[in-house]
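Q: Convert this sequence to structure tokens.
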Amino acid sequence: MLEIGTLKLKNWLIMAPMSGITNFPFRLIAKRAGAGLVTTEMVSAMGLTRNHERTFRYLSSSPEERPLSVQIFGSDPHVMAMATEIVVEAGADIVDINMGCPARKVVKTGAGGALLRAPDKVKGIISAVRKACPVPLTVKIRSGWSPGQTVACETARIIEGCGADAVTIHPRFVTQGFSGNADWEIISKIKAQSRIPVIGNGDVSDPPRALAMKRETGCDGVMIGRGAIGNPWIFKQILDLEKGLEPTTPELSERKAIILEHFRLLSDLMGEKRASKVMRGFLLWYTKGLPHSSRFRGSFTGIKDFNTMITAMDSYFITLTGSSEIPISKTNSMDYQIFQHETRAGRER
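A:
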């Protein structure tokens, strides 16, 4: 169990916020797969305060994925405080402040990783948000702006001093992006000086790495990002490994079911046409490492709706089994009607 402020999570595994990835469908699948906490995509504080419809879509949620952490970014303390009130009203169980994003469009506004070069701004933003935030508050940082400018320990002290309930550290520099290796020793140093929970993030690509991070750094929780894309069962595998059980990989039938459910949830959220385009990318991850996946990927561009996706999946999974089993699109002639009914029902909610 992991306690963040007044919130008790069922375990110590947290799904990282990832732009273009961690929308509601992805979060719900991760939650069902065992994540103790899921996090939204990074949400613009300015967009929320200006009532941008597109920005508010990032807050789409359901009780099934709770508890939910909503990550916001910005550079103005007043705007960040106003955005905090908005996301709490929308149902956020935790408010997370991004102070590490390396994306140029974020950094050029003085937000995200740019804040690691402005300790006074860090203090001003966290203090303002803390006053406006009745739920647990967390902050996500990186090692610093660039090699030779490690400020993580100093920034973590400011974060704790301003009343945050936990700090997450991705031990790469902003200028690194996701290149090179994460320096877990920085996580250890922050844990040694902190009285609030410390969550480690970076290079957790499989279950043994998650346990290794926790063991080697002493961190209270582990945040998993890229390792969960197309591999949501990583959370259950980690928990099984922690119990001394052998982690299992999903059967092909389970993998197919998850893909189908992911597509249904995406269609519910954004419509079947747009969901088809988004799903093409996810299918690359869902089939990564499987035999003959490169041959299957050639059919991705032809996916335009539910039926064309099922056709592509049938062709590929039958190749994997090496059998002449009945394609899943033919197993139940009601599949598509059920899909359409569930999608319409979801939109009505």
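The radius of gyration is 21 Å.
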